[in-house]
Known about the structure:
Layout: H1 6-10, H2 12-31, E1 43-45, H3 46-53, H4 57-65, E2 72-74, E3 77-81, H5 82-91
Antiparallel strand pairs: 1-3, 2-3
Helix pairs in contact: 3-4
Amino acid sequence: MNAKELPAILGEALLDAIRQAVREEIRQVVGNGTRKHEPEKPYLTIKEAAEVSRLAPSTIRLAIRKRELRSLKVGSRVILKREDLEKFLEANPIRAVPE
């Protein structure tokens, strides 16, 4: 069985439920990473947002410039709400294209 056959076998609703469960598990694992002693920060710098999302800092800046990702400017520092970053990532999934 390959990835192309899954939608036909399982159905799109079940696949969406599986994807959501996997996202939640990943979020829990990432949240319980190597920095266990530090509380989860509600605001992130661009560099921290890039590390959390595993995107390049330039990709984060581009999303901010395109107004796809909300940010705040405090002095010369640009910060993002963690929940805004999570919403941005969840709103931009890569969909498998059936062939």
